[in-house]
Design goal:
This protein is of the alpha/beta class. The chain contains 8 helices and 7 strands, in the order αββαβαβαβαβαβαα.
């Protein structure tokens, strides 16, 4: 375990399932045919080796749009475990769909759950795969680009993986917050920027290095998305006195 409390764990190679292979062959091409995403800079994605795809976050479908646009490079992302544990036909369909598009189940939450999610991402990278992340943490409900959390920078500095910034445009119109079904009228733009080598910021154990590396990532995402900058973290209002106290104290937002 590092001084930050990040578990070191041994890497576990990510083995593609039959459903994931099917998704790459059938689901991704079908999604491209239906939504006709306009993709720029796909050549900036390294064809092999660990890489972090870091994007803005506007809609539920962001984590699906990225793997579809990045093809033929396989991309994995974390999804809450609830999508994989449902019962009946609906549960099977949800599990099959998220597995097919490259999702890896994790428990959402703070504390140990957050550390476990970070460790799972590190394992994916250690296996030589690509992982997609949203530094803002949660979806932007007003279209602005929020301040990035430092978990993405930690992964990049710890593993040496390059970071490819992504600017997503229009996903919030295809599937706004609260929508049950995506619209077929809108078109998504996915812009891949040039890979970032963040090693010059310093070691992953340095809070300053993680912060400045995160700021570089967010600046690159901003240049690609053109969003208005919020200048603050994107988080729900504190619900309890303890949460309010924690947010009042200086600390690093992972």
């Amino acid at each position: 375990m590092t001084s930050d409390g990040i578990p070191d764990g041994d890497a576990k190679p990510l083995q593609p399932s039959a459903l994931y292979t099917f998704g790459r062959i059938a689901v991704a091409p079908l999604a491209r045919a239906i939504y006709r995403p306009h993709v720029e800079g796909r050549e900036n994605i390294p064809p092999s080796g660990p890489v972090i795809l870091a994007s803005n976050h506007l809609s539920f479908i962001d984590s699906i749009a990225i793997p579809v646009a990045a093809a033929p490079r396989p991309v994995h992302f974390l999804a809450k475990s609830d999508y994989f544990t449902g019962k009946g036909v609906k549960g099977w369909f949800s599990r099959a769909f998220f597995t097919a598009v490259g999702a890896v189940p994790v428990d959402r939450g703070a504390g140990q759950a957050a550390l476990d999610a970070l460790e799972r991402q590190r394992q994916i990278l250690a296996s030589g795969a690509a992982v997609a992340l949203h530094p803002e943490g949660t979806r932007s409900r007003d279209g602005r680009l929020y301040k990035g959390r430092t978990g993405v920078a930690f992964l990049a500095l710890e593993t040496g993986a390059p970071v490819v910034p992504i600017g997503l445009i229009g996903t919030d119109k295809v599937m706004p917050v609260g929508a049950k079904v995506p619209s077929l009228k809108e078109r998504v733009i996915v812009r891949f920027g040039e890979p970032l080598d963040l090693s010059h910021h310093g070691p992953a154990s340095s809070g300053r290095a993680r912060r400045t590396a995160t700021d570089e990532i967010m600046a690159a995402i901003h240049a690609l998305s053109g969003q208005e900058l919020a200048g603050i973290y994107n988080e729900l209002p504190a619900q309890t006195p303890i949460e309010k106290l924690k947010r009042a104290l200086p600390h690093e937002r992972r």
